[in-house]
Amino acid sequence: KMTQQMRDLQLAQARKPPGPSSPNAAKRLYRNLSGKFRVNYTSFDEGSLVGRGEKEKLRKSYLFQSNAALFEAVELQDLDRVQELLKHYSPEELDLNTPNSEGLLPLDIAIMTNNAPIARALLQAGAKESPHFVSLESRSLHLSTLVREAEQRVNELMAQVVNEAPNADCSEKEKQLKAWEWRFRLYKRMKAGFEHARVPDAPSSVHLSVASSSSLQVTFWEPLSVNSAVVTKYKVEWSCCPTFSPLLGEAVIDKLKDLHFTIQGLVSGTAYHVRVSAYNMKGWGPPQASAPPFAIPSNWREYDGRAPRRRGQAEALDHLLGQVKTVHQHCICHEPCKNQPQSRKHSVSKSLKHLFHPGSKFLKTLKRGLYLTAIFYKDDNILVTHEDQIPVVEIDDTYSCLLMQDFLWFTKVSCMWDEILWLRQCVTVSQSSCSCILQTRFKMLLAISQMQGLLGIQDLGQVFFEPIKDKQGNILIVTLKEVKTNQTFESVRWVPICKLQTSRKSVSSPEEPTALDTLLISVQDKLAYHQRSSHALSPGLYLGYLKLCSAVDQIRVLVPERLPNILCHVKIRSNPNISREEWEWLQKMASVEEPVPTEPEADMSQNPLFQELQVAIKELMALVNIPLQEAKDFRLYSQEVLDFGDQVSFLLLLPPSDDVCTAPGQNNPYTPRSGFLTLPLQIFELGEER
């Protein structure tokens, strides 16, 4: 018998025996396990275990019970229990793809009882169908055998119960009879589900897009009707011929969390046709051709053969910096530092002990001058000195008005924290001119070195985009760095931010707060800015809005508070690539010198990019509070697509030429709603690089 062969195979491979044979047993088992789902097995009292062997046996026992509980939860069609098990155990721990003694997998039971929610949950967890069902005939024969043997067992037990006198053995046989009757009904339901099912319909929609000059992206959706059987995989086929003969390639997709596939290794400039078909336990359904019917791998740079803007730039800058260092390495002023290491390789836990050294030169109060403070934070705690003060060092006690150019120079230095010693020596060489600017910047480098030395840490983090000033003439430059390690530091004092703020209020003046008071009052906002400025965009093509405003000594750019390292933007689509054909269309629009269209036109209604841009422009105008009719005078920047790596790209939407940059005193009639800020352009560029 096929069933017997299955069982022999399981015994040969040392498979697990079946779980509880009745719904009541399954419920009892699940109740016993439910209290342990939220506790890893290593959290049990290890003192009660004699040794590692006993602990491993206990672990295997619980994993076996979880495997049995999964089978029973699927058979009982209990979605909540299935999801709970999948959440707290890995597929390996559940033996998700190990058949039971009947040759069935959890996914087999789910799809043959047509339980779509459980089947989808199992598929997303990586469940497979049993490999023993190599054909429709083998599956049908196996189900018929299970039904026949279960019916035979029910008849045998029923005869025994009827013929035997009431006793303990009879009571046990009655329990077995109920369990087999339940299993008999389950197998009949599975057999009926298989017999009534048909192959699935074609996928409801297949979208084809150009992913690069050598790849296409295929996105598809489930069939409108699966014909009483859950779809367990899809097949993507591609060919240069619309008849798909010959077939160039195919791929079977059985991980159904995301229904998309990227066809790699294609020839640029060649048209490819694509189709997708769905599969269930009855076989493959009819294919669905893609829309558009074909696509040509390409990239917008192929339009004029343009090379990537940043190709080789990092290498060229490193080479230039190396040349500058070579020129200065033989200077007399560099001799004392030759024996000093360029970077202190203290561990964080050891180096932070410098905070509590009695010879520390951190300041407790500010006088009239320019200062540097470094904020290190972890969760809701902040690092303080042994006197419960934020680390502060003096830059210049005679400097009462920070020039923006000096501050922007300081932010550029923050990209070279490891090179401060070398920069100090270079500025020392140039100091013969006695330039006030050079003297100020040399003092900045000295203050940075002092902060690094006292902390024992080279990397002071990211500079906050504007210094803090008070009426007493103090100016405070703030750096921010998050400590992500979970290590507990010895002799290092982490103080809750709220506690530090409370203690500071008792000694500060609410009428005229100092720069330190202002820092502590707004520290949560600054930490939030720091965290948001390191977030990355998800892959895709975006439409960005470029709006500048100028002041006497700087140009500022409008950015969203939730992502201050990126222009105001909305997502156009998930595919970041602009194909050559799409770029040609954008160039044609720009050459006509017509404004950006916001309403559909008959000859463009079939252009997917045109439709996507229409939606994106409306969404972006609403975001920045500009009436849609004003967008008719806006322009798309047609010189290039801004590529940020391989996964993110931008098209820029520009106001009319006279309104791109608002001059000092010029009114802007359309002020963005709350949730935006303006950053100095150089600060924005540095944040973008980070």
UniProtKB/TrEMBL annotation:
Which ranges carry the Fibronectin type-III domain? 202-299
Where do the segments described as Disordered lie?
1-25
User: Which superkingdom is the protein from?
Assistant: Eukaryota
Which regions form coiled coils? none
What InterPro entries does its record include? ANKFN1, Ankyrin_rpt-contain_sf, FN3_dom, FN3_sf, Ig-like_fold
Any one GO CC term of the record = spindle
Gene Ontology BP, a term: establishment of mitotic spindle orientation
* PANTHER family, per the entry: ANKYRIN REPEAT AND FIBRONECTIN TYPE-III DOMAIN-CONTAINING PROTEIN 1-LIKE, WIDE AWAKE
Name this polypeptide is given: ANKF1 protein
- Native source organism of the sequence: Rhagologus leucostigma
For this protein's source organism, the top of the classification is:
Eukaryota, Metazoa, Chordata, Craniata, Vertebrata
Point out the gene that encodes the protein: Ankfn1_0
